[in-house]
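User: My advisor asked me to double-check a structure prediction for adenosine deaminase before group meeting. I don't want to rely on an old file, so could you generate it fresh from this sequence?
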Amino acid sequence: MSSETLFPAPSGVSESDPLLRLPKVSLHDHLDGGLRPATIVELAAEVGHQLPVGDPEELRVWFREAASSGDLVRYLETFDHTIAVMQTAEALERVATEWTLDQVADGVIYAEARWAPEQHLGQGLTMDAAVEAVQRGLQAGEAIAADQGRFIKTGQLITAMRHADNSLAVAELALRHRDGGAVGFDIAGAEDGFPPSAHLPAFQALHRACFPVTIHAGEAAGVDSIFEAVQICHAQRIGHGARIVEDITSAGEDDIALGRLASWILDHQVPLELCPSSNLQTGIAAAIEEHPITFLKEHGFAVTVNPDNRLMSDTSVTKEMRLLVDRCGWELADLEWVTVNALGSAFLPLDERERLIDDQLVPGFAAVSL
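Assistant: Sure, here is a fresh prediction for adenosine deaminase from the sequence you gave:
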């Protein structure tokens, strides 16, 4: 199979787009939000799961429209369908392999697969077996890419569901697999009403074990959620974090006043895993031009650009970058800066991060012009 067949351009991206050739990093990228529609159709048929439509392209449209509907019930239904077909080791391995190959097609050289093992136990898997299956899939994708002369490195972000009462067990799971592909921990799910501090025992265990943490915060809830994530639960990165702007007042383009938390986030360069298209779907902004990402970038915050859920938002890192270039005036230097931010804050050892920046990012950006 040719490299072009294995790595077709992401949906909505032209093969000739120079942005596609840029080396990229994807820190906020849900495994269960990035399945191929054709794979969902095949796996659903195997397990007898009823889908809203049976044609892969029609299903792609259904996912995008349901996620963009403004109806939370419809949005959450999209994940019911993807998780339903990810309940066996074979399915998890396949999804993880394809997820990795799709990253390569997008020009991504480092990606963290964010997913919640506790949601994949419906057919008898243990959480450990589920993590091992995903790891086999990620490694298979890396090997296929290498055979085709392409490079990618992946890791797992083991996620607990914040509305559940299982976070300490999931944290212990992540620690068991820290030498087997697990690079970090997260909590996800309904943010408003489920503060990070409710899972403090898990975060304390991870902190004592020197294990990296990112926390969904500042998306559906505001500054208090971000404060708890950083100052109480020791998060090294913030998943989304767009609502940090609520701690900033502006009297003009160059006249802003930072609150205590915003100052801390800026001064300590706490990375913000921003996901523009996804944030539009969840109501953080009405249009990409109004999204806080450009304001935060221009004022020195450690901004990164991510897809969140590739299927639900019908997006990719390249597509997010293209939106920012075409509609927000971003230039190549801006894209390089946020990509260096992302790789610099990846849950990798320092020497690996520095090597990837020197060997992959810098020459990759130097070879592309807009």
